[in-house]
Amino acid sequence: MDFLYILATAIETAIGPIAAVYALAAIGLNLHFGYTGLLNFGQVGFMLVGGYGVAVSVSTFGLPLWAGVLASIGCAVLLALLLGIPTLRLRADYLSICTIAVAEVARLVYRAEFARDVTGGVYGLQGFASAFYDANPFPRGDYGIGDISFSARDLWMMIAAWGLVLVASVVMWLLIHSPWGRVIKGIREDEEAVRSLGKNVFAYKMQSLVLGGVFGALAGALIAVNQQTITPDQFMPQVTFYLWAMLLLGGAGRTLGPVLGAVVMWFLLTVFDETLRSLAATGVLPFLQGSDVGALRHAMVGLALLLLIVFRPQGIIGNRKEMLVNVK
Amino acid sequence: MSSDATEVTAGGPAPVDRMAGVAATPGVAKPDPILKAHGVRRSFGGLTAVDVEHLEVQRGTITALIGPNGAGKSTLFNLLTGFDRVDAGEWSFEGRRLNGLGGHRVARSGMVRTFQLTKALTRLTVLDNMLLAAQGQLGERVWGAFLRSGWRGQERANIERAEQLLERFKLLDKRHEMAGNLSGGQRKLLEMARSLMVDPSMVMLDEPMAGVNPALVQSLLGHITALRDDGMTVLFVEHDMDVIMGISDWIVVLAQGQVIAEGRPEDIRADQRVVDAYLGAQHGEPADAEEGR
Amino acid sequence: MRRRLVTVLLAVIAAILAVPAMAVADDQSGENLNGQIRIPETVEGIDITVFQGDEEIGAVTTGSDGSWEVELPGPGDYRVVLDQESVPDEFVVDESPGAEIEVSVRPGQQRTVIFRLAPPGQEEAEASPSESADSGGGADAEADGGGEEGVTTAPGVSAGTPFGTKVVQLAVAGLIFGLIIAISAIGLSLIFGTTKMINFAHGDLVTFGAVMAMLFSTGAGGFGNSLLVLLVAGLLAAGAGSLLSGRAPRPVPAVVAAVIALVGVAASTVVGIQGEALDWEVPLAGAALVAVLMGAAFGAGLERYVWRPLRNRNVALIQMFIVSIGISLMLRHILLVAFGGTRQRYDEFQLQEMWRLGPIAITPRDLSIVGLSVLVLVLVACMLQFTRIGKAMRAVADNRDLAESSGIDVNRVTLYVWSLGGGLSALGGVFYGLNQTVYWQMGFHLLLLMFAAVTLGGLGTAYGAMVGGLVIGLVAQLSTLWFPSQLMNAWALAIMIVVLLVRPQGILGRRERVG
């Protein structure tokens, strides 16, 4: 087993574009859950419509890439309205049921046979991101230190993705440290009290759902651009649960919580993956096949969710003081 | 105790004038009503919780809403403040119809409520709890939030006002504490202070003394009378008879969802229907009430 | 306590009696191998040959409905080979299970052998799941080989069927599907009622039941034995612990329970290593019973060792939702690792002749599912209506605080609700697997429909789950009359959203504050 190789791979993943994508989607989830208290178990649905917003606009309708990104955002707003109007007036558990269901239905609709002309069905769409890569200012070659290196393409992607994460974090910080953020946090604590003070709770919840959904959609668009190909089955419900694990690991209700969570989580996951894979390759674990690694990783994320909630609900940088407050 | 109470009622000159000449009959019209409700009805699965034919609340008074458990006091509260939907009926506040308005719009029109189980926003600081209640904040709009220069001045003014109110309710030194770390009584005070931050013309207090330690009750009572003396109208639900008799200018008695009596404290005490419906329903209470007289 | 023991004893006796009876019933005709080429569509004229060793036993060509059958001389190991030359050009043979399958046939078994064809493109799509590993879907691509995801097929319906027949057939399929949803969802609704918690792992309890029945009906081997030993040890440990607590000084019960559990783990390891030496299998009915018992024990175990401690720690409800999601992720993927990602069918009761009952054509298997489901639902309803524990369950589901203050042992009732829910969802899983296929995501897809069912019927009410389940099942199937079958679940969930808009408390829910 090559520890140095595992370490380098893990660091590459932790600062790579995928981690940035997850960080961005988790920032949206943080707005939903960490600040507003909305139980969104369908963030992947926003990522799906975001990714396809770009892919369909460019591949199917031949629009430029920037129009695709706008379409992504538009789709996310629509989805948020669709989810929010029936459920945001009801108790929190109804939203959780609806989000998980609607995200899965969206995936089934996008992969359905009748939608093939638009979405490409199960095969998805390809080749819609060349405009982005044509704009790459870096000459071809590898960039990096020691064992950690990225191609020019990855570097360009990383800069775009982490740039978006930075912008999103700044936006979040500004919003949360404003009177708007105060109302949002008030709703998390007790929406009836906030309503009794003359605030339109429904509108605020809707704004939060839309805004967090847009972050999710941008993350989806990044996935599409990064891979240059998109299929509905990349957007399984597990993705949402990964985001939850990252958010809780980093610390819900903190601006940098989701970003830190995504980086640390991807580091740990890659270490877990690579270790298991090399163990399986050396034959130490005879009952383990290479293909089981992915499934075991999902199971690990489940375990992580459980342990985090029970033993460290505030995450890595959560505010222990806030957590210790007697809520009821 | 009760003689004290009569003194307090008699001692406030303004309210006595306000209610002068008003007959102690259910649904009676008031000289200057701030809140008028007519035919308000609400039932839960065949059970009528509230069926109020007519009710008016006089401006600038402390009006108490009493009744045995399950009489529909809290439901009526919820209906009037837009936290529940009526089956039928209409009501107006300062001449504006409130039918079908959501809780937040009722609050904005100047009628602010508190809750029986205190709803302090536990993981916000005391000061943030107060600031949240200020109205018309530019920074509360999602786009406005980004324009710091746009709302900074407003915020400063709000902080100043919040601190004055906190001072009055003796919570100023706690302003940077999480609201969840306050004691039960302090939370009640905070909730009352917070409702004033909305700048209401009428406050509706849902059992303000419930679960408050006896030492704090007097100070809470003081705050409530002070509200009236500031020109606000107070409507409150309460169980403790002594408290009600002591500070209210007018009492409305609800039983099985209907207004069965209203009048000055002394009228209510003398009313046999009230004794039957309400005092008789609570063990030990009738004897106390009789002794009190 | 005594009455509980008697109940368990009776159940065990019934199980022992039932197993040989089923075995006898199954032993009526000679062995054969059969199958139907119907994935992705029925294909005629494919040559299939059966060998025992090198000796050819028989050769057939698939009929117009894609089905084939070969009589066998007796039980034993056979090799079934599909002639790739005979496959039409628009298909290739799917790599799993491939064109050559080895099977072992038990005495009296009519074993189904399933070959899969695939359009050539699909193989390519599945051969490149490299990127999707990064988006958290690594294990999924390979698992999706056969059958359309999230689609429940109705028998006897194809493009040419007249509309009236189609309606009837789809209504029957919807009824079956609805009954399965109802059975599985009762537990979900009761658990919500008693603890206000949405159990996101409920779907995986369904998968658990189906997979356990599969395990024990197709040869338990070392793995099944290990699981059984662990289960028994766990039950013994918990039983001994609760018997001794209060009678013996404080550390004794915990120590005894721990020792029993450790012995159990050791024994299960030994049995696991013994492996195939202790191989055994029971008919599906017996396996289903084992699965239901294991499901009940699993549900009870979750409540006793996860949820109750969490409630005692005052963990907020929202946090509990997340924990249940964690458990569901773990359970689902452990089942995936342990049993693989392919769709499987139970060996028994496959490819039966349709019975015609007036306008309805139904296989005896589906008819039994309907009968048994109705029976189970009636039994559950009777239990809820007339027995003390049933009334207590409804009381707790209605108002936990009130029930507690009127002297009901709420924790005990919750434990029973969880074991009832676990057992019923395992049974639902077996029925679902029997009606369709067993695969690792079946429960998750059913979960979404169960959500629709309980929301429709009214969260927290057992009868609501039954009514809601039936409606959802019928809607899902009947929607395929006009809309693509891939969207059937979407329609069911759309109904849920409409219900939330119009009547959030559900059909049977009481009008109270839900917002």
TrEMBL record, chain A:
UniProt keyword Membrane, yes or no: yes
Protein name: Branched-chain amino acid ABC transporter permease
TM helices/strands, residue ranges: 6-31, 38-59, 65-85, 155-176, 206-225, 241-269, 295-311
A single GO molecular function term of this UniProt record: branched-chain amino acid transmembrane transporter activity
InterPro entries: ABC_transp_permease (IPR001851), LivM-like (IPR043428)
Keywords: Cell membrane, Membrane, Transmembrane, Transmembrane helix
GO cellular component labels: plasma membrane
Membrane topology term: Multi-pass membrane protein
Subcellular location: Cell membrane
